[in-house]
């Protein structure tokens, strides 16, 4: 292992300790344990809604509104319930989150799950991975990886924080960065992603923290 890569691993391990000490151990445990095979329809609907709402917005903003939005969508109990009360769900959700396209996209995902069946949706994700998720409304190239990771696919999401860290550490992509750290630490790629992303949200100096001197 090169000296520069050893430095990066050391910084990663310390960053992980910092976010644990900041109270995010449950988040890490959740990411480690989440598994697509065990994912339920309700969990999928909830995570799809979270990712759709989060696109282009701060996590803290969505977190502050998500309980209210969940209630509007009948706590994502099932696609059938949302479909049967789609207009009321849409109306109630819009009252607390005034972004019609995102609200409509959540309704659209519920219709897709209802008509295709969640078992078929899950099989498609197992076979095609994040590429399949791009067929859902308001799920794009980056957010497809965000959703895949949140439902238990072992991938990293190419969001702005991860892309910046990959750049300053000399890696060609977020995948390369997270796979290399994963191979040394034993953390899954998804957990590596979460450690770097969460550290970036709580430390404004995250780029200089990870930057490898040349």
List the helices and strands and how they pair.
Elements: H1 3-33, H2 41-54, H3 59-72, H4 79-84, H5 86-96, H6 100-116, H7 118-128, H8 130-133, H9 141-150, H10 160-168, H11 174-185, H12 189-202, H13 206-210
Task: Provide structural commentary.
- The chain is mainly α and 214 residues long.
- It folds into 2 domains: 3-34 and 156-210; 37-150.
- 74% of the residues lie in helices and 0% in strands.
- The protein is built from 13 helices and no strands.
- The two termini are 16 Å apart.
- The mean pLDDT is 96.
Key terms:
single chain, 214 residues, mainly alpha, 13 helices, 0% strand, elongated
State the helical fraction: over 70%
Helix/strand/pairing category = mainly alpha
Specify the biggest β-sheet. Answer: none
Radius of gyration: 18 Å
Count the E strands.
0
**Helix count?**
13
Relative strand content: under 5%
Low-pLDDT stretches are none
Summed up, the domain count is 2
Give me the strand/helix succession: HHHHHHHHHHHHH
End-to-end distance: 16 Å
Would you tell me the overall average pLDDT? 96
Shape: elongated
